[in-house]
Specification:
The complex is a heterodimer. By secondary structure, chain A is of the alpha+beta class. Chain A has a single domain (51-372), classed as Cytochrome-c3 Hydrogenase, chain B (Orthogonal Bundle), CATH 1.10.645. Chain A contains 16 helices and 8 strands. Chain A has helices at 3-9, 55-59, 64-71, 79-94, 100-128, 133-153, 175-198, 201-207, 215-220, 226-229, 237-240, 261-283, 337-343, 345-349, 354-364, 368-372, and strands spanning 14-19, 31-37, 40-47, 162-163, 166-167, 304-311, 316-323, 331-335. The longest helix of chain A is centred in the N-terminal third of the chain and has 29 residues, at 100-128. Chain B is an alpha/beta fold. Chain B has 3 helices and 7 strands. Chain B is globular, with a radius of gyration of 16 Å. The longest helix of chain B has 12 residues, at 110-121. In chain B, the strands form 2 sheets. In chain B, strands 1-2-5-4-3 form a 5-stranded mixed β-sheet. Chain B has a single domain, classed as NADH:ubiquinone oxidoreductase Nqo5 subunit (Beta Polymerase, domain 2, 2-Layer Sandwich). Chain B is 20% helix and 25% strand. The chains are: A alpha+beta, B alpha/beta. Chain A binds chain B through residues 45, 47-49, 52, 54, 56-57, 61, 217, 219-222, 224, 233-235, 240, 302-307, 309, 316, 318, 320, 322, 331, 333, 335, 339-340, 342-344, 347, 372, and chain B through 27-31, 33, 57-61, 63, 65-66, 74, 76, 80, 83, 87, 107-109, 111-113, 116, 120, 130, 134-137, 144-145, 155-158.
Chain lengths: 373, 158
């Protein structure tokens, strides 16, 4: 056979492949339309909407108390921080000053939520790259946080503990004790994570230099949270626009400049340590006082536009409310961190292999209901 | 920069624009709001980013809005170096074919957000590389987040 015929038989050809909507690595119903040449990715086109519930449209007919409840269902791993975002927006619009006790409890719960979210991310990310054991380690520790949440408000995941004006009810008498128990436990377990996965050579080879994102591109793509900070972009809303009790605590912003998957991994591990530090600073100093300011049963926001940013476990969540002075928002837009972070997936995946796409996507930490809303 | 300084600086650009018109307001909002004519939208936004004093390099929110008569888009911008924020609004009364210039060449994230605005509000964007239904199916009839959208089966109106 002549050489040219052989080359023809093995000639390179682009073709399409569907990844998802039911793919285990997308952690939800996300469909990626991949254009590939052999195993090299040429283009990634996300197709969304498989779990879209039109929360923004539902908000236009709901009262502000009901909207808080809907936000649980967006990024369900940061449910409490989402609740806080809407409550803060409403409180700022009504110019309500919540008691210090509320601020401190909100911050403690938000940081516990962040640890729980990063914890789950660490478990499933290990699974995505083939390290199944991480999942069981992560769930062992996360269980303790969920138990605390359950005792506090009855729910383990979609908490709905914040209400405009404060909290739904006061903390459980055991709360402080159990949080301290968890912190003591977790401080001995978090180094195990490094021993098990971070320092593993095979793991490092899969993560280092993969999914590169420069600082300029991170800003241009609107990256936030650990994705932005892994590229050296200092974007922590808790530092830039502090809210609740975050101005009373000191913590370091986790920053890495490598911009690869491993940098994003390291940022999240460090953030768990920083969250522990924030909780330790606050847990012994929860001020006495009311857990709620009474608001009207029917909340009417003044006419105008209100914007509130918070830092969820995934990045910057924005709540943009346009009010005409009635009991419903005229328009409510959620700027979800996952949506902007997904927009850069094509950029970091092109030129790599399918296996690298899975690893990169794992370090973006996408939660699909957050993107679909 | 303070809102006042921003307004003073941006006002000096007005003669360069086709419509020679920018509307500033700080009423009922925590940010400085600029309403711009569709023809000048791209030029203004490009300048807000490229000017070293404003340097709005971070588009953190792009929302479609239906104001009843007018349809439009709201851009929330922040500068990562100066830490100031601004809001730019663009509106049109043409509800059948609302068209604005795409800003995906200024901020790359806009490509995705503009697809969302198109999907739910039917706002078209000139020069967009791939304007498509991102969430809804290709054959979806109408634009659900518009105020005049009616769906008797799936919508519960209170």
């Amino acid at each position: 056979m002549e050489t040219s015929t052989i080359n023809n038989n093995f000639k390179s050809e682009e073709y399409f492949i569907n990844m998802g909507p039911q793919h285990p690595a997308t952690h939800g119903v996300l469909r990626l339309l991949l254009t590939i040449d052999g195993e090299t990715i040429k283009n990634v086109e996300p197709d969304l909407g498989y779990i879209h519930r039109s929360i923004e449209k539902m908000c236009e007919r709901d009262s502000y108390q009901q909207i808080v409840h809907l936000t649980d269902r967006m990024d369900y791993l940061s449910s409490n921080i989402n609740n806080e975002a809407v409550c803060l927006a409403v409180e700022n619009a009504l110019q309500i000053e919540v008691p210090d006790r509320v601020k401190v409890i909100r911050t403690i719960i938000a940081e516990l939520t962040r640890i729980a979210s990063h914890n789950l991310w660490w478990g499933v990310m290990g699974m995505d790259v083939g390290a199944l054991t991480t999942y069981f380690y992560a769930f062992r520790d996360r269980e303790m946080i969920n138990d605390i949440f359950e005792e506090t408000c009855g729910a383990r995941l979609t908490m709905n503990y914040n209400v405009p004006g404060g909290l739904m009810f006061d903390i459980h008498p055991n709360f402080v004790k159990r949080v301290k128990e968890f912190i003591a436990h977790f401080k001995t377990k978090l180094p195990e994570y490094d021993t098990l996965l971070t320092n593993n050579v095979i793991f490092q080879k899969r993560m280092r230099g993969v999914g590169l994102l420069s600082k300029e591109d991170a800003i241009s793509y609107g990256a936030s949270g650990p994705v932005g900070r892994g590229s050296g972009y200092s974007c922590d809303v808790r530092k830039i626009h502090p809210y609740s009790a975050l101005d009373k605590v000191t913590f370091n912003e986790a920053l890495r400049t490598d911009g690869d998957s491993f940098a994003r991994y390291e940022v999240r591990i460090q953030e768990m340590w920083e969250s522990i530090s924030i909780i330790e600073q606050l847990i012994d100093n929860i001020p006495e006082g009311d857990y709620k300011v009474e608001t009207n049963a029917v909340i009417k926001l003044p006419k105008g536009e209100f914007y509130q940013k918070v830092e969820t476990a995934r990045g910057e969540l924005g709540v943009y409310i346009i009010s005409t002075g009635t009991k419903n928002p005229y328009r409510l837009k959620f700027r979800s961190p996952g949506f902007s972070n997904l927009s850069l997936l094509n950029h970091i995946a092109v030129g790599g292999k399918i296996g690298d796409l899975v690893a990169s996507m794992a370090t973006l930490d996408l939660v699909i209901p957050d993107i679909d809303r | 920069m303070t809102n006042e300084a921003l307004q003073n600086l941006i006002s000096t650009w007005v003669p360069d624009f086709i419509s020679s018109k920018l509307e500033f307001t700080e009423e009922e909002s925590q940010f400085l709001n600029i309403t711009v004519q569709p023809a000048d939208l791209h030029k203004l936004l490009a300048r807000l980013k490229s000017n070293s004093k404003t340097n709005f390099d971070y588009l953190f929110c792009l929302s479609g809005v239906d104001w009843g008569v007018e349809l439009g888009v709201v851009y929330h911008l922040e500068s990562t170096t100066h830490n100031h924020m601004i809001v730019v609004k663009v509106k049109t009364e043409d509800r059948d074919a609302p068209v604005f210039d795409s800003v995906h060449d200024i901020w790359k994230t806009a490509e995705f957000h503009e697809c969302e605005a198109f999907d739910f509000f039917g706002v078209q964007f000139n020069n967009h590389p791939n304007l498509r239904r991102l969430f809804l199916t290709e054959d979806w009839d109408g634009f659900p987040l518009r105020k005049d959208y009616v769906d008797d089966i799936n919508m519960i109106v209170k």
